[in-house]
TrEMBL record, chains A, B:
One of its GO terms (molecular function) is pyridoxal phosphate binding. This is PLP-dependent aminotransferase family protein. Residues 41-391 form the Aminotransferase class I/classII large domain. Its cofactor is pyridoxal 5'-phosphate. Coiled coil: none annotated.
Length: 395, 395
């Protein structure tokens, strides 16, 4: 069978292969990119789904508008307003997880050969998603304060990209958060070079201490002309439930209309059953308590992982303690002749019954094989301590 | 903003514009392509969703496998077996409605410029979906027994298409059902020309009297080598609920693996919440009763519409009485100087407070402006009779 030529640009990820090993009994996994099932507000979602099927069964079970189920768009508009983003319900579309927002951006914007700038490292599924549409990806370097905007400007000037894709808050895999100053700089670059900026923000609500800086979308009101060059992707997956597959995208009207047309032929619309359930949940007023709960639990786990890494691995790794999100991004320093290849460490770690994801696949260009990603979301504090101890032994 | 070049191949459908007029008070609509909300088994789905969130909340709310939630794949495999298709759970993937199965087929198979044969007329969203991937569509003519296989063979031989897309049972918009003899011929053509056949089957369960012939997929066991050249798309949308967005695709392993990879970057997976609910529903054993109910009600409506069309429009229209599905496909004959342009009739009909969809947009090539599609699904018998009377007046 002869497949479409666009498939030549992607491969099944190395990470997927690793995940097959995670079934090993007794393994402690820091490999996943998902929230802890124990955090789900099952009772709240039960009530919400029953209410949806009692009060609005017709809407919840019938075909719906491609743009999204109106009661959910209204709730999401209100939710975004609490985060400083002024958006009406018709200024956003509901997507089947924020993964679909990325897919629709690819379908709508990227012609084969178009250049797209991403952070190095960035979310693996974004790399593959955009490559399927023929994008040529260019990596902009980051540090603990997110993408280096001076380097980003050079790359924009040189490559004239179709869009710049950033995860500015608690990035995956980097855990890094773009500073307020750099956020403003990104907005200025958008206007100066008339370049579309995509802000992917699935983790922004998941902060442990102080709230992070406002989203780039929220800050756009301070930079004239920038809002028309911004798309913002949100998601309920990390804070409420990934299984609902509820994401959304805020974008300029013309882009939103084209993305909606593409969505019509992608899946017609996102499950109205899931949308009505999410709308009832948001309306119920339980979200603030749920957010407080996940922030507290993940915060403790992040604390425990940071302390354990220092204790067990010492100067063999360097990392910045994340203030939110799900991930530690670490780098093997090779100090004292220790291993500096994360792929090799991943193999040894599996033997010691602990798993993580090597960092190299997260780079669209110039992979750094010394890097690794550790999720602290799904193991409790005791398991985190035991797992990091095993990691130290593997090293 | 400069959008991707693939968007040049499609336009927002004329039908979408028509749908904006349907809000007019007092209108009777035969325009929709959706089932009647009053048919939904709300109680059964309430129970199923509660059971899913009680017995398997972790699975129903967490990220899931891209291929589909295993309990649902198991149920769908059993469901297909009752319809004569021998498929294991790993021989199918769950899709976000069968629209997504079409999208994944486009993404996986179609390179820009590839030729695809469809029926003339065919499902509008298939035309647009495949065009977005750069397909050049070729129309194969149909009659009351579905696609004319002798003409189809000529087109396959001439164009060597990437795939042939058919809705063999109660087609949309045609209502036509491919005869048993022609089904076998299609399978022989697949093998003879080594051409992928896509069987889209959202309506096959919705028959009013005798069951239709077995699906092409079910018949493939009689034609050696044909199964490896067949993809079959199924859906719960027309018989249970479109809002769940549960479809599935059966295909050869290599195609299924590539489509799964594409799905990973399209929406990661279909809502596990909706999948677990659908699995519980199928497991509950209520499906046969639900099917019996929808068959009976839609059967009565189809009967009423056929009789009313004869009574009110006489020889001004020709049509074949459908034995299942949701649609009448009719042709204005122009007899006795009556109108033969369905676009013009649609405008006059709206004035008389009745709506239908003109047939021309359903043709990928050579539109027949005398054709129209009438759905009998959402109006009850009294409204159908009144609506067709208005249609007669408009004519």
């Amino acid at each position: 069978m002869q497949f479409a030529s666009r498939l030549d640009n992607v491969e099944t990820s190395a990470i997927r292969e690793l995940f097959k090993l995670l079934g090993k009994p007794g393994i402690i996994s820091f490999a996943g990119g998902f929230p802890d099932s124990a955090m789900f507000d099952v009772e709240g979602l039960k009530e919400a789904s029953q209410k949806a099927l009692t009060e609005e069964a017709g809407g919840a079970l019938q075909y719906g508008a491609t743009e999204g189920y109106e009661p959910l768009r209204t709730q999401l508009s209100a939710f975004m307003k609490t985060k400083g983003v002024d958006v009406e319900s018709n200024g956003l579309i509901v997507t089947t997880g924020s993964q679909q927002a990325l897919d629709l951006l690819g379908k709508t914007m990227i012609s084969p050969g178009d250049k797209v700038i991403v952070e190095g490292p960035t979310f693996l599924a974004t790399i593959q998603c955009f490559r399927l549409y023929g994008a040529q990806l260019i990596s902009a370097p980051i540090d603990a304060n997110g993408v280096k905007t001076d380097e980003l400007e050079k790359l924009i000037a040189e490559h004239k990209p179709k869009l710049v894709y950033l995860i500015p808050t608690f990035g995956n895999p980097s855990g890094a958060t773009l500073s307020l100053e750099r956020r403003k700089k990104v907005l200025e670059l958008a206007v100066k070079y008339q370049t579309l900026i995509v802000e992917d923000d699935p983790y922004g609500d998941l902060y442990f201490g102080e709230a992070p800086p406002p989203s780039i979308m929220a800050l756009s009101k301070d930079v004239s002309g920038s809002r028309e060059l911004l798309a913002h992707c949100g998601s309920l997956s990390k804070v409420l439930s990934p299984g609902l597959r509820i994401g959304w995208m805020i974008a300029p009207p013309e882009l939103l209309a084209k993305a909606t047309m593409c969505k019509q032929f992608s899946d017609a619309h996102t499950s109205t059953f899931a949308q009505a359930t999410a709308a009832q949940y948001l309306k119920s007023g339980r979200m603030p308590r749920t957010l407080a709960h996940v922030r507290e639990v993940y915060g403790q786990r992040a604390q425990a992982m940071g302390a354990a890494l220092k204790r067990e691995l010492g100067d063999a790794v360097s990392f910045t303690q994340p203030n939110g999100g799900l991930f530690f991004w670490a780098r093997l320093t090779g100090a004292n002749g220790k291993l500096a290849d994360a792929n090799e460490l991943a193999k040894r770690a599996i033997e010691k019954l602990v798993a993580f994801v090597p960092g190299a696949p997260f780079f669209a260009e110039k992979p750094d094989v010394a890097t690794l990603r550790l999720s602290f979301a799904t193991a409790d504090v005791a398991k985190i301590e035991e797992g990091v101890k095993r990691l130290g032994q593997a090293l």
